């Protein structure tokens, strides 16, 4: 069964079409792997019966010649996507027992393209975190953790998605990225994570964190799989007023296009003192690879980069404080009866249902939006956001794509950064600007730290130019020749 | 104004969060640390800069004002902590 797990989605798709394997066999192999790697805590709920039913339906469609683009491919779903009839909690106590009566647009599209749902994946509570540690289910573990050593963070917020794809317990996984929640965990776990242009993937049916920044995207083993899955997730949706009515570029052609003649921007402001030396080296190596492949490097400046994180930590909590007002113990989720009034019930329910980090962000957001502080914080942050977007707009007039590190460090042990929220926030220093500007970004595994942990490079492109993104990412992937098996995974599977 | 215990009490009330008295001081400290880090934004000259609320570049789409969905009372109430006769039930608000 193990050999099935080694296939990429693109390869598995071909093997399914040629009837070398069946969707049921493939799904069973993944369900077995997910059970064997349970200690990684990357699934919060497995839907084995549903998976086998969907796989049987896929086998029938393959036999009938009506297979969809993702027919029979097993997918794990971040527990932020509403799935009809399957508990959806955003990994929060406040949504305990919530079983949606509807399916998110993105997951609907995956199922109608033939994908098979394996279960729901762990994440930070309401996607607020960078180590998956704020989840009510406990942290997902990075399969690259050394056997017998400390458990390493899988990253966050989509830690379960990255961990499952890296551990071979999901072939594909969905994630969401508000400030780096796809790209940072992908880099930590040695897989490919892509955040599309804002508006590409419908937000309908995804538990909202910060609506002007949230965007769904794919976790995959390689770049070709990423393009395949993204094409299925994307598309205009009238149920999301911010959904873009723009057709997708030819991604298959983009995967095989050359970077020859492309101009790649190298932003001066992404050089950081606190960066691991191995990451500085890898960034340089990435530049060399692109030059070898015929691209031209262009030094660029994104002068407002250092203000991206503080602006983000006003805008995201402000939007979150508004979005999370709906959890009131009346319409869904948990309710704590307390005191004598409706307000007493609201306050008790929300205090018991939200974890510390979520409460902290709700309070920051409430403060920033409150009378007397709105201009000083919220409006100021939105003005800075404009300047950050202008920086990118200007840069993309002279370059096709931008190359940066994905994260300032490799995966760190769980538990070490919990004392100081700001230290944790700094994880997203390279990823947050793309969310503020609404542009796409991809994290590609490209090398290793001194202690043998995976490191990622990030490619950014202009809005709606995922084709350029995939061309550069495919080139980096080819040149890096990244391979390797997470040690913890290997031990569990044997 | 710096965030103190009273500010925390006020924000918690606005956000409908029951923050116990003994935790208010600690939370005030955490919020002060985050806000003082955010003060960096003050260095940026934003005179005459239009605030950016949405990156979509398109205006919100309009549709005909017609009912397109409905008759889903059971679906809507399915997850309610308490319901009766097709309504959500809340604690008594009028005497």
Structure description:
The complex is a heterodimer of chains A (494) and B (95). By secondary structure, chain A is α/β, with parallel strands linked by helices. Helix content of chain A is 41%, strand content 13%. Chain A has a single domain (2-263, 398-493), classed as Amidase signature (AS) enzymes (Alpha-Beta Complex), CATH 3.90.1300. Chain A has helices at residues 2-5, 9-17, 23-36, 48-64, 105-112, 159-167, 183-189, 223-233, 251-256, 277-292, 308-323, 342-353, 356-369, 374-398, 421-425, 432-437, 466-480, 487-493, and strands at residues 43-46, 74-78, 116-121, 172-177, 192-195, 215-220, 263-267, 296-300, 401-405, 441-448, 454-461. In chain A, α6 runs parallel beside α7 and α11 (308-323) crosses α13. The longest helix of chain A has 25 residues, at 374-398. Chain A starts with a helix and ends with a helix. The mean pLDDT of chain A is 95. Chain B is mainly alpha-helical. Helices cover 35% and strands 4% of the residues of chain B. Chain B has a two-stranded antiparallel sheet with strand order 1-2. In chain B, α1 packs across α2. The chains are: A alpha/beta (494), B mainly alpha (95).
